[in-house]
Design brief:
The structure is a single chain. This protein has 111 residues and is an all-alpha fold. The chain is built from four helices and no strands. Helix 2 packs across helix 3. The protein starts with 6 loop residues before the first helix and ends in a 7-residue tail after the last helix.
C-alpha cells in the first residue's frame, strides 16, 4: 500500500500548505507594520495624508513640495499615488513634465 495516497499524507500536505499561507500572511502583516512604524504619522489614513499634501504651497519654479516623497515609504506611496498632487504643472520642472502627467492619471491639469 502506497503511503502517498494515505489520509495522513493528504492531511500533512494540507497542513504544510496552510502553514505556508499563514507564514506569507504574517510576513505581509509584519511588512505593513514596519512601514507604519517608519512613518511619522502612522495612524493617519492615506486619504487624509493626501489632503494634507495638497495644502503644501507650490510656487512656480519651487520644487520643495516634492520633498514629502523623501520622508518615509508611506508618505512616498501616498504622494506618488495622489493624482491631484501631480496635476499642477506650474510647479513642475520641464524635465519632470512627462512623469507628472503620468502621475496625474487624468485629473484636471493646471497649466
Amino acid at each position: 500500500m502506497s503511503t502517498s495516497n494515505s489520509p495522513n499524507h493528504a492531511s500533512s500536505e494540507t497542513t504544510r500548505g496552510l502553514e505556508t499561507r499563514l507564514e506569507d500572511q504574517q510576513r505581509g502583516q509584519q511588512q505593513d507594520s514596519e512601514a507604519r512604524r517608519g512613518s511619522l504619522l502612522p495612524d493617519i489614513p492615506p486619504e487624509i495624508l493626501a489632503a494634507i499634501f495638497l495644502l503644501i504651497p507650490r510656487d512656480e519654479g519651487d520644487t520643495s513640495w516634492i520633498s514629502v516623497t523623501h520622508v518615509c515609504r508611506l508618505w512616498r506611496e501616498v504622494a506618488l499615488d495622489c493624482s491631484c498632487f501631480w496635476s499642477d504643472l506650474n510647479s513642475v520642472p520641464p524635465r519632470f513634465m512627462e512623469f507628472a502627467l503620468a502621475r496625474s492619471k487624468g485629473a484636471p491639469i493646471t497649466v
